[in-house]
């Protein structure tokens, strides 16, 4: 809560319209108490546009009188209000200066649906979000579409995310098969040739007749041969 020291000011800034308990106005009454003895402090306030003032709830803390400004105090704007502090001791009534009060204007509560102009802006925001989602989906699909060498064109074919089809990159592959393709028993078209599978099966059967144990390294070496 922001504290405003009233003594020495001619105008008290109460905050923005509709603010509640955001500011505290502090009045120092030690001079009154030293002159008149212990007494009771009262505060009256008149908002802009009101015909009469109203009593404000205040609290004491020693020589200080504290006014916690509520939404009721800041409900009106459009001009200066005013307030006055009074000190009562028996039949003695002492009054302070009349402070001007000022409440800054603020926007009202937001509606549930935006007006037409704002709705157009909202549509643009939503469309931008949808485009971002579609771009992410295309990137995800592209990540699993790996380039492959074509035996027919002897070039590398790559995935085009815009058309979502493979296209010729023009980069020569020289008809060679990558180490990964050789290791997995695939040919230049990235397919498992029947001959390679049959050869691997025969080699496994022949080695099993000699040894009952074949390691993963043995299988890899057979596939590279």
Description of the molecule:
- The protein is an alpha+beta fold and 225 residues long.
- The chain has helices at 30-36, 116-143, 179-183, 194-208, 216-224; strands at 2-5, 11-16, 23-28, 40-46, 54-56, 59-61, 64-68, 80-89, 92-104, 148-150, 155-160, 165-172.
- The chain has a five-stranded mixed sheet with strand order 2-9-8-4-5, with no helix packed on it.
Specify the biggest β-sheet. 5 strands, mixed
Question: Oligomeric state of the chains?
Answer: single chain
Fraction in beta strands: 25-35%
Shape annotation: rod-shaped
Order of helices and strands: EEEHEEEEEEHEEEHHH
| First and last CA, distance | 81 Å
Gyration radius over CA: 43 Å
Proportion of helical residues: 25-40%
The helix/strand class is alpha+beta
Describe the strand arrangement of the main beta sheet, using strand numbers: 2-9-8-4-5
Uncertain parts: 175-188
The total strand number stands at 12
Number of helical stretches of at least 4 residues: 5
Arithmetic mean of pLDDT: 78
């Amino acid at each position: 809560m922001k504290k405003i020291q009233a003594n020495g000011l001619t105008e008290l800034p109460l905050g923005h319209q509709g603010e509640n308990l955001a500011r505290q106005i502090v009045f120092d009454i030690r001079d009154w108490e030293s002159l008149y003895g212990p007494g009771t402090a009262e505060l009256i306030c008149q908002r802009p546009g009101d015909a009469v003032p109203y009593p404000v709830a205040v609290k004491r803390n020693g020589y200080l009188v504290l006014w916690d400004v509520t939404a009721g105090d800041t409900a009106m704007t459009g001009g200066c209000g005013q307030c006055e502090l009074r000190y009562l001791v028996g039949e003695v009534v002492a009054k302070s200066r009349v402070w001007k009060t000022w409440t800054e204007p603020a926007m009202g509560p937001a509606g549930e649906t935006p007006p037409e102009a704002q709705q157009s802006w909202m549509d643009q925001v939503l469309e931008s979000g949808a485009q971002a989602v579609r771009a992410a989906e295309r990137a995800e699909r592209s990540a699993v579409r790996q380039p492959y060498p074509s035996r027919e064109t002897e070039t590398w074919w790559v995935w085009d995310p815009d058309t979502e089809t493979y296209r010729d990159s023009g980069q020569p592959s020289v008809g060679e098969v990558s180490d990964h393709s050789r290791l997995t028993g695939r040919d230049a078209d990235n397919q498992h040739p029947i001959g390679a599978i049959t050869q691997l099966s025969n080699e496994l059967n022949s080695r099993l007749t000699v040894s009952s144990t074949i390691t993963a390294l043995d299988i890899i070496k057979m596939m590279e041969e």
